[in-house]
Amino acid sequence: MSREKILAAVKFNQPAANPLPDMEVLNTLTDVRTDLVSKYKTIATGGGSFVYEVSGFDEIKTIINNEFKPGVKIISALNELSDYIYADTVKHEDGHNFADVELTVLRTNLGVAENGALWLTEKEMGSRVLPFIAQHLAVVIGKDDFVPTMAQAYQTIGDAGYGYGSFISGPSKTADIEQSLVIGAHGPRSLSVFIL
Amino acid sequence: MSTATTKDHPHLAADFNRDEPRVNWHDETLWWVRAKRDIAAHKLPEWELLRETASQIKFNVLSNLSAYLEQFEANAAKNGIIVHWAADAAEHNQIVHSLLEQRGITKMVKSKSMLTEECHLNEYLKEHGIDVIDSDLGERIVQLANEPPSHIVLPCIHKKKEEIGDIFHEHLGSAKGESDPKILTETARQHLREVFLTRRAALTGVNFAVAETGEFVICTNEGNADMGAHLAEIHIASMGIEKIIPERKHLGVFLRLLTRSATGQPITTYSSHFSKPQDGTEIHIVIVDNGRSIQLGREDFRNSLKCIRCGACMNTCPVYRKSGGHSYHTAVAGPIGSILAPNLDMKKYADLPFASTLCGSCSNVCPVKIDIHDQLYKWRQVIVKEGYSPKTKTLAMKAMALTLASPTLYRMGGKTGRLVFKYVPFAVNNKLNPWYNQREMPKAPDESFGEWYAKRKGAKNS
Fold first, then answer.
1. I need a surface site. Which of A2, B148, B322, B452 has the fewest CB within 10 A?
2. What CA–CA distance (Å, rounded) separates A184 from A121?
3. Rounded distance, CA A40 to CA A152, Å?
4. Do B294 and A164 touch (CB under 8 A)?
5. A interface test, pick of B185, B278, B290 with most A CB neighbours within 10 Å
6. Which 8-state DSSP code applies to residue B7?
7. What's the ipTM?
8. In what order do the strands lie in the sheet with A85-86?
9. How many CB atoms lie within 10 A of CB B79?
């Protein structure tokens, strides 16, 4: 009932057709000479992330083993980091089971230099709640996987299908109490980014 | 908020203004956020092009809204999302309630949604025995204080950390006198984690809904929308009809503008795209009109539907900063709220378009180029014409019109005024004169321009 009523009212009241603007200019308005990795690093660090440029997975393992006590629950979505619980094997588990996860390690192929955002879909996450419920989050990305702005990011995503996807740009944070920035609101208390 | 307020903006602002240091603090805090917005905007050479593009996309949306809504509905349904339509606040609240009732759910976690504030959903559900907990930290704080948010992005911007400490001590068991934002945030984290892990239903707002794909996007810094939605068996998303954008690629434009305008951040921590429900769970979306289609038909005001709720117009508004969000007695405060509210109830919100200096700062910072101050000026004319203007103002304007229309009255008025200022200044320098409240009265000249001119002319001719 209301559906028809709303649609009829909208149709009756909407102005005459107006064309969509040209988006091409925004897609091309980028300085290609910019070093995207260093730009990303500056922005992401400014947003509270820890960024490591690493030579390989052994180095990542070393950093993780230095940062986290042995025995804590770590879930990894990467084949190369097989010392930990493999995300694929737990992806059908109830999200509530992940309440005690200390660290989740995920892999992405798309990072945005202008704002430090990393694009992750359900496929990369294993379970949707994993990047949020873990006390800490780490993401592995290749050094060639950065685009300058969100315009190119959506060109890269294109019309890909996903159930759920998120741009994650740092640790969970809030500034609701007198505008004091506090890291670690409801989601991860830290975001570590490993650039390969 | 459901209790009808009898006070209008000037009176509510006067209440807020009693504590002058607090007003200055509120003013400075918001200006600091506004300054961060400027820095972020100036970092992008294409900022103006982005604003113009966003404004044009939104204009296209408004001109084609019925088709986009149908397209969104069809695609969302294809993705397995269940779509509901609500003509007004009451229907929206009933739909949400019935979804919970059918499943025997009596507790829900909610992430920020100004639409549900507009619909007074929390009060409605409470009356029906459903416990709602707001999970955005700022919203949780005002909820515990039994207040509505005073700002759409910074809900408890009016509260001092010591007051928040007292609230947390009373409700969440933090130590008495604790006011460290870090410790208070950790207290809320522990409390809300328990909530996320035990709620079967989660409600969120919607920042953008994409017609082309049937997905919708929610932006938070805390991750509370995701924690709620991913752990619940049913996720209800409430959205106004104006949240639609045509294609996925247009998100690139709006996500670049939203937080830079809101807080000066380059993007929120989380910009989450919900397309399909997870296995074993449901996503419901409630598409709400509640007066928006009427506003769409008002040519002078339809641009207000372009709003992406960044709050930049509030942060920059000299009136908002010095009168506080609660003085607007509506869910969306500040300049944009003062355009949206009279559409819902012209009589109740007739005071709001007057709560502006018309300085134009709001229009200058608006990321989608809404002509906010022009619309406020136009609302004033509509409100006066419809007879809803404040009584004192109407009388004063009538007296002014009469005086200005008659040279004799005008001269007499001027003379009386000058005499009063000179011989009985206490007749104007008192609390009955609202103009005197915040300023010194000027010194009156000895003669009027007319008298001076006549004298000068006489001297020349002689």
1. B452
2. 22
3. 14
4. no
5. B185
6. -
7. 0.98
8. A50-53, A190-195, A136-141, A103-108, A74-76, A85-86
9. 17
Round to whole Å and give the CA distance between A169 and A182.
Answer: 15
Which residues, in sequence order, are bridge partners of residue B210? B245
- What residues of A are in contact with residue B199 (Cβ under 8 Å)? none
Which phi-psi region, left, alpha or beta, contains residue B146 (left: φ > 0; alpha: ψ -120 to 50)?
A: left
> Which amino acid type is present at position B30?
L
User: Could you tell me if B117 lies within 8 Å of chain A, comparing CB atoms?
Assistant: no
Among candidates B29, B66, B250 on the partner chain, residue whose Cβ is nearest the Cβ of A179: B29
User: How many other β-carbons are positioned within 10 Å of the β-carbon of residue A12?
Assistant: 11
The reply to whether residue A92 touches residue B265, judged by beta carbons under 8 angstroms, is no
- Residues A129 and A110: their CA atoms lie apart, in Å, by 20
Sign of the torsion formed by the C-alpha atoms of A149, B239, B117 and B202: negative
- Cβ atoms A177, B137 nearer than 8 A: yes
Amino acid at B142: V
Considering CB atoms only, which of A20, A47, A178 is closest to B246? A20
From A20, A47, A174, residue closest to B137, measured CB to CB: A174
A:B CB pairs within 8 Å: 249
Partners of B227 on chain A (C-beta within 8 Å) are: 129, 132-133, 186-187
Tell me if A2 and B271 make a contact (CB, 8 A cut-off): no
d(CA A168, CA B104): 34
CB B127 within 8 A of CB B151: no
Q: Radius of gyration over alpha carbons of chain B, in Å?
A: 26
Q: Is the pTM of this model over 0.95?
A: no
The C-alpha atoms of residue A112 and residue A132 are separated, in whole angstroms, by 20
DSSP assignment of chain A equals: -HHHHHHHHHHHHSPSP-PPPP-HHHHH-S-TTS-HHHHHHHHHHHTT-EEEE-SSHHHHHHHHHHHS-TTS-EEE--TT-TTSEEHHHHTTS-GGGGGG--EEEEEES-EETTT--EEEEHHHHSSTTHHHHSSEEEEEE-TT-EESSHHHHHHHHTT---SEEEEE-SS-EE-TTTT--EE-SSS-SEEEEEE-
**Coil vs helix vs strand at B112:** coil
Helix axes B161-172, B137-144, angle to 10 degrees: 70
User: B185–A184: do the CB atoms touch at under 8 Å?
Assistant: yes
Q: Which residues of B touch A185 (CB under 8 A)?
A: 137, 185, 188-189, 221-224
